Each structure stands twice: as C-alpha cells, then as structure tokens.
Amino acid sequence: MSARPQVLLVDPGDQTFRGYCLEQVAAAYDVVLLTGTEPSWETPYIVDHAVADLRDSTALLAAGRTLAARHDLAGVVTWSEWHLVATACLARVLGLPAHSSEVMRACRNKATARSLFARHGVPSAAAVTARSVPEAELAAMAVGYPAVLKPTAFAGSIGVVRVDRPEELPGAFAFASAGASRSREDTAVLVEQYLDGPEVSAECVTHHGVTTAVAVTRKSLGPAPHFYETGHTVDADDPLLALVSPVASTAIRALGITDGIQHVEMRLVDGRPRLIEVNARIAGDMIGHLVRLATGIDLPKAAAALACGHSPDLTPTRRGAAGIRLLYPAASGTLTERQVNQPFAARTPWLQQVQWTRQVGDSLLLPPDGDLFTARAGFYIVTGRDTAEVNERLDTAAEEITLTTQAAR
C-alpha cells in the first residue's frame, strides 16, 4: 500500500487545459478519480476511478461513497466550475474538509456574490437581476449606461455583453439569456454597472481564513461589446500584486471562504481595484501553469493539500514571467490552415508550448454567434524575465503562427 495521502478528484477536465493539474497533484498524492467518462489520458496518474453522470448530484454522491468505501481518502478536490457545489456536498457527506454548499453556491451565483460584496464593503459594481426585457430596461436605468449583461450563474464569459445605448438592450438581453439558459442553477440575467479599466485577476490561496495572493494575472480581451479573453501574463515581480491583494482577501472573506484556491477577477477603475467575481477554484486558460512558470508555486498541489486539511507549500522558487495567447480567427468560418514555423519553434527556447485544439475543416464561430468553446483554435505559451519581455515574445511568436479561415458562402 502507498504511504502517500489519497485524494478524490471530481472531474479532471480536458487534457489540453487541465492535464497539468492532474499531473502535478499525482506527483504527491494517490489520486482516486470520479469522472463522467472512462479514463484515457488520466490513467497513468490515478490509482482507481468510478464513472458517473456528474450532472446528476445523486449519482455523483453515490459514486463518491463507493470510492470512499474502497479507499482511505484524505480529501476531495475539483477544479471544475460546474461541480463546486456537488463536490462540497460530497466532502461533507464523507466527513472530509469542505465548505458548506451555501458558500459554494454564493461563489457560483454572481447576484448573491454582489450582494455579499456590498454588505461587507467590497468595492464592486452596482447590479440588478432581470428575467425579462422590461426588467432589464429598468435595471439598466438604475445602474446607468454603459451596462453589462451576463448570466447570473455561468462561466467563461459566455453570454456577457456590454450595452452602450437603450436601443441595444433587447438584443443584448437575448444574447445574455441564451447563455443563462445553459445554467442548471439560475437562468436569470444580471444587469450591472460597467467597470471601465484594465482587467486583472489575483490568484489566491486561503488556509484557515488567511488569504495569500501568490500572483496577479494581467488579461487581454477581444473586441467590444463581448468579453472573451485572448491572453494572460503573470510576472513574479508585478507591482500590482500589492494593490489587488487586500481587495481580493476582503472579497474572499465576504463569501465565507476559509480554505482553497481562488481566482479573483477585478478591473482597475481609475487605478483602484473593483471586484468582478470570485471563482473558488484554479483559474482556467492555463493560468495556474503560468503561475508555476513565473514563480514556481504549484497551485494544483496546493489545492490538494487544502482539500486534505493540510498547509500548502507556497514557497516561490522562480522569479520570472510567463504569458499565454489564445488563438482565434480574424473572422468566423472553416479552418483552412493552421501551422507554426517549425525552424523558429525549434530554435526558440522561450516558446514553451504551441497547442492546437481544432483541426483543419472545423468550423470556428466567434461571438455573438459563438463563444470561446466554438471560436478558439489553440494557444501558445512563452516565458521571459518580465512582463515587457513576455509581451514582446508573444508578438514575435504571433508572426510565426498561421491561422486561416474561409467564410461560408
């Protein structure tokens, strides 16, 4: 029998964007997997598994109990936005460290979070929920234009749109409602004040109520009025970290979070942080990997430690920077060409990874007709000494990557 702690992982995610998380946790823990499909790429990193319909909370709890009967589990962890509530319930049922399901629901529901931010004095945005166009019109009048409409309980910037004038609101509400209809938790639309300024996030680790912001991520967005993310950079010496850390900690406390990993999104309005939302899990888009490349801090391993009630190791072992650029087409259409200049890639050590996620012949659909799941074709990652060098290298690498689509006739 292994002497290593055993941790139950709910939903490993896809190999491309979440494979690094499982690999890093498996380096220190025996991983027991609860998944929606038979394992494939996950097999080398797990000691046992069960397959269940993860959308069915009853099935998820039953499968979790079955695995717990076979193993001496120390904790339960997930980095899936969609299973935060169910994972908390499962951990409570098994008598393992966990938040209440109410805390996780508050993180999942943007309207609830906004209310808690206001109650605890967290600088955020005025917001009102709406379930019809007339309600949205009244809400927009209350918060003012420009306004942002978004699903109350979804993720990935799906259904998020800016409205600059009243005549744009019916179309924007339809767009946001379409995104909200995909939620199993709340189909309302949130109408909120537009926060004008650069978007950043604080990557945080909370243990016994004490939050440490280990890195700040600077974000790039696609063209307005939509909010899909096109890139991120992390710098171990970013001066913004000291500015955003106190606000991130206050927001995490307001939601009742005492342990875990948080991806806290905010905008800098007139140089001051204003909260967008707190995600109670490791960030997507490979941000956790960027944190490790820049600082050496291992967020997936920290997440497993916290799930088991242990203190995480947050010792920085590097002082550099890293960045990712997500590859989108210039226009929607059929992907006709995708390639990287191979001689350039072979002689460029700072180009850490180029990853395609779509094949030639696939349809790529940008917002408003599509979303990040239908629009992205891949990504690439670079490293450097600081943010300026990383941005320069991201631009240099972009010249060596070809992505071409052909519009439908």
- Please state the average pLDDT score: 94
The name CATH uses for the topology of the largest domain is D-amino Acid Aminotransferase, Chain A, domain 1
Give the count of structural domains: 4
Would you report the number of β strands?
A: 19
Cα separation of the termini: 62 Å
* Alpha-carbon Rg, integer: 21 Å
Main beta sheet, described? 8 strands, antiparallel
CATH class group of the largest domain: Alpha Beta
Contiguous uncertain segments of 5+ residues:
none
How many helices? 13
Structural class: alpha+beta
Strand content bin: 25-35%
Query: Within the largest sheet, what's the order of strands?
Result: 13-12-9-10-11-14-18-16
| Envelope shape | globular
What is the second-level CATH architecture of the largest domain? 2-Layer Sandwich
Helix content: 25-40%
CATH superfamily annotation of the largest domain: ATP-grasp fold, B domain
Describe the structure.
With 409 residues, this protein is of the alpha+beta class. The protein folds into four domains: 93 residues, Rossmann fold (3-Layer(aba) Sandwich), CATH 3.40.50; 68 residues, ATP-grasp fold, A domain (Dna Ligase, domain 1); 124 residues, 2-Layer Sandwich (D-amino Acid Aminotransferase, Chain A, domain 1), CATH 3.30.470.20; 90 residues, D-amino Acid Aminotransferase, Chain A, domain 1, CATH 3.30.470.20. Helices cover 32% and strands 30% of the residues. The protein has 13 helices and 19 strands. The strands form four sheets. Strands 13-12-9-10-11-14-18-16 form an eight-stranded antiparallel sheet, with helices on both faces. The longest helix is centred in the middle third of the chain and has 15 residues. It is globular. The termini are far apart.
